[in-house]
Structures are given as C-alpha cells and as structure tokens.
Design brief:
By secondary structure, the chain is of the alpha+beta class. The protein folds into three domains: about 5-105, OB fold (Dihydrolipoamide Acetyltransferase, E2P) (Beta Barrel), CATH 2.40.50; about 115-145, no CATH class; about 150-455, Bira Bifunctional Protein, Domain 2 (BirA Bifunctional Protein, domain 2), CATH 3.30.930. It is about 30% helix and about 25% strand. It has 14 helices and 16 strands. Strand 2 (about 35-40) and strand 3 form a beta hairpin. It binds 4-amino-1,4-dioxobutan-2-aminium adenosine-5'-monophosphate (4AD). The site of 4-amino-1,4-dioxobutan-2-aminium adenosine-5'-monophosphate (4AD) has 23 residues, from strand 11, strand 15, strand 16 and helix 14.
C-alpha cells in the first residue's frame, strides 16, 4: 500500500525517509556475498541502490544472491532509505542513493538482450575511451530497447515540448486546429515522390502534405488553420549508394499552417518569426532538463537566434555566396551544400543560426505559389533555415482561379486529380498563404544531431519498414 516515488523525484530533502521506487535494472555490480550495487532506471532517470547485509538493513545473503541472478532490464521494486552517497555516483542522474531494505522482481528472466541500454547510451567521449558502444543500425533494429536511453527519453520529450508550444501559440492567435485526409487522389506538391495505392479500384496516394486541404479549409472560411499530422514522401532521392541521406524520412510529422492575409506575404513571415522565437524560448525554459540529458550523450552548443529573425532575399543570399566564391544559379535552387555554406556566412555576418530566405525563383517552387507582382521570375515564398538546413517552407498562394489553372498547366500538373481543389477557388478565395514545418528536422537541428532517424520514434526510410 506504500505510494511509489518516481526516480526523477528523489532529492536530498528526502534523506532519511523510506521510499518505494520502481525501475529497470540497468546494471548490477556484485562486490561480495554481502554487498551489491544496482543501477535502477526509470524514464531515463537513474539511481544507485546499495544492498548490504547488515543488522540494520536486514538484507539477507539470500537477497543479494537473488539480485545477482536478475536479468538486466528487469523491472524491480525497491523499498529502501534515501541516503547521500559517500561520493557522487557517475552513472546516476540523482544526487541521492537508496539503501535497500527489500527488493522484488516483476519479471521472469529474459533471454540475452540484443542491445544493452548502457551501450546505446555511450557518448563520443565514452567510445573514445574504449567503452563498448552500439551502432545506429543495431539500435534502430532494437528501437524499443534503444528508446530507454536518457538521451532518447529526452529527445522525444523535447519533441513534445515543440508540439505543445506550436499548438499553444497558434490557439492563442485564434488558429483552428484541423485534421486533413491522408488518403488523397494525387500528388499535392508536384513530382513523383508519392506512395501510390489502390483505393477501391481508383488510383490514390498517401498525402505528401496537407497543402490542398488546408487551402480548401481557408476557402471554407476558417480564416486561420493548423494541422499536425503524418506526411508521406516516397523519397526518390534515396539510392542504395546513399541509404542514410541524413535529413529525409519517408514519413514525418508535419506542422502546417495556413492563414488569410491582408496584403503581403511578410505577414506569414511575421507569424513564423513570433512562433519560432516563442517555441525556442519555451524549449529552453521547459525543456532545460531534457536538453541537458541530450547533451550528456551528444554535446551541442545552444542555438544562436535573434529576438527578431533575420530576413534575407534569395538574391541577397546568392550575392553572399558569390562574394565568398561560390557560384550558384540565381534562378535555380540551393542544394544541401550551398544551404550549409550560406548558413555559415550568415552566422559569421549576423551571429544567428536561424534565418529566413525569401523571394525564391518561381521555377523552383510548387505550382500553387504566388509569383512576385513586380517580377514573375520570383515568387512570394520563403524557406527558413536552422543551423544551415531547411526546416520550413512557405509562401503566399495563388487565390485567383484562372491564374491557378494557368500556372498548374505551365508546371505540367495533371489537373484530373486536382479538380475539387481547383473548384474551391471557383466560388471565391481570399488572399492567403502558409507554411509547413518538419518536426523531426526542428529537433534534430536544435540539438545539432547528425541524423534525422535520431528524432523519429520509429523511422521510415527506403530500407526500413520495421519496427
Ligand atoms: O518543403 P516542403 O516539401 O513544403 C511543403 O510540403 C509545403 N506544402 C509547405 C507549405 O505550406 N508551403 O516540406 C515542408 C517541411 C520542410 O521544410 C522540412 O522541414 C520537412 O517539411 N520535410 C521533411 N522532413 C523529413 N523528411 C522529409 N523527407 C521531408 N521533406 C520535407
């Protein structure tokens, strides 16, 4: 009948009191028939539990024998007294340790584990010091065990903070949360990167983005909407030669926004600015403990960002690259390499790792993007970069029916699958625009992680459909 205490809540103020805790047995060190050390882990927090045979603790030699044969990762309930360790315990996340009185195991023995959490949790420094590690492939194959590391526990809680701050901010600005269909008739972004499927005899596909339906919701008079949900991309850029292309998944979490605008696409950029300064600030406040846990395994510097986000035009970006000796097509697109390079130049010149680039060439944007009024070679569009990589793309959309049909034609879009989308503009649409964010990219780059699979709970790539 004793109430459980969570491992994360074990603090110095509790010294001297008896507690009941539950955790997984990460490691057991057997010193002698009279002394054993358990490292118990719960949700990424760890505490050392010491079992000594003595008059005072009433722990028997048999109990220590019992602890010795437990499989690692077993669930163990421990009743014990909170004490201060003689010296800090390195692997523990808590300042206190537990003097064991009683221990109960909740499982039977396991077969040998395919992955040890200890090994999955190694930092670069641990590995350099010669400790056994685990490669990413093995870790992803055994993701359920891999997820138990303190860094992974933290990464997905950080994702939760971003998700929550995104919603919190938008709801406060009267945006309406909507849910758009993931089964749709055709490509929404143009191009061939779609998963095709058979919908009762009719060709269909998994939505590449909520683009079409979030715009149709605007035509349905919701004014401002947002969507959080799975987005599917049959990333054809993956090849067997580049199986680990680092920023791309075949399924990711999209955070999408669409809104009416008064007159200019800068209104959308203003929202991105406010929203992301809010998200980063909240993340640093609410997610401080988790960020620290990520840093323990994957060290990184805090993100440099400005209270008012820097905006550069695409042409200015091209000029900066040119001045640095990098030649890029002024009416073409950037690639991963030139984006990184520009990120470095921006950091040197403006001391920020978060900025927006706008007025992209129209030719490199989807058909629904509004061209610039003063020069149709460019468009009212933008990308947002975090540590040199794209996390957001957005734009003002074409809201005039005839113009939309014309642009779709010019872009070689098959209008058959877009009929009802085009119809939405037939009966009047307001000027509007929006943007899409990739959640896994935001967290990957905020924490300067080297692979997007680290921020996807169960990542999907061309070579992985399980677990
Ligand atoms: O740049 P994308 O393709 O833009 C759209 O989907 C538009 N409908 C957005 C809009 O409202 N105009 O995707 C938006 C974001 C990217 O900036 C990136 O963060 C993420 O989605 N993203 C991916 N994340 C992981 N894996 C992939 N394969 C991704 N493709 C895009």
């Amino acid at each position: 009948g004793k109430k459980m205490t969570e491992v994360r809540d074990l603090v110095e103020e509790m010294v001297g009191t008896e507690v009941l805790i539950r955790g997984r047995l990460e490691t057991y060190r057997h010193k002698s028939s009279k002394l054993g050390f358990m490292m118990l882990r719960q949700n990424g927090f760890k505490v050392q539990c010491v079992a000594t045979q003595s008059e005072e603790t009433k722990v028997s030699v048999n109990m220590i024998k019992f602890l010795k044969q437990l499989s690692s990762e077993s669930f163990v309930d421990v009743i014990g007294v909170v004490v201060l360790p003689k010296e800090p315990v390195k692997a523990s996340t808590q300042k206190v340790e537990i003097q064991v009185r009683k221990a109960y195991c909740l499982n039977n023995g396991f077969p040998q584990l395919p992955l040890l959490v200890e090994n999955a949790a190694r930092s670069e420094a641990d590995l350099k010091a010669g400790k056994a590690g685990a490669d990413q492939y093995t870790r992803l194959n055994n993701r359920v065990i891999d997820l138990r590391t303190p860094a992974n526990q933290a990464i997905f809680r950080i994702e939760g903070h971003v998700f929550f701050a995104f919603i919190e901010f938008l709801i406060s600005k009267r945006f309406v949360p909507i849910f758009t269909p993931k089964l749709i008739a055709g490509s929404s972004e143009g191009g061939s990167a779609v998963f095709k499927l058979d919908y009762f005899g009719q060709p269909a596909c998994l939505a590449q983005s909520p683009q079409l339906h979030k715009q149709m919701a605007i035509c349905g008079d919701f004014g401002r909407v947002f969507v959080v949900g799975s987005v599917f991309r049959a990333e054809d850029s993956f090849t067997h030669r580049h199986p680990m292309k680092h920023g791309h998944l075949c399924e990711f979490v999209g955070l999408d926004v669409e809104m009416e605008i008064q007159m200019h696409y800068s209104e959308i950029m203003d929202l991105v600015d406010e929203l992301f300064v809010f998200i980063f600030t909240k993340l640093n406040e609410r997610g401080n403990e988790e960020l620290e846990a990520v840093r323990e395994q994957y060290p990184f510097e805090p993100l440099k960002f400005l209270p008012k986000t820097l905006r550069l035009t695409f042409a200015e970006g091209i000029q900066m690259l040119k001045d640095a000796g990098v030649e890029v097509d002024p009416l073409g697109d950037l690639n991963t390499e030139t984006e990184r390079k520009l990120g470095q130049l921006v950091l040197e010149k403006y001391n920020t790792e978060f900025y927006m680039l706008h007025r992209f060439p129209a030719a490199v944007r989807p058909f629904y993007t509004m061209p610039c009024g003063d020069d149709p070679r460019y468009s009212n569009s933008f990308d947002v970069f975090l540590r040199g990589e794209e996390i957001i793309s957005g734009a003002q959309r074409i809201h005039i029916l005839e113009f939309l049909e014309e642009r779709a034609g010019e872009c070689g879009i098959d209008l058959k699958t877009l009929e009802t989308y085009i119809d939405a503009f037939r009966y009047g649409a307001p000027p509007h625009g929006g943007f899409g964010v990739g959640l896994e990219r935001v967290v990957m780059l905020f924490c300067a992680l080297n692979n997007i699979r680290k921020t996807s709970l169960f990542p999907r790539d061309p070579q992985r459909l399980a677990p």
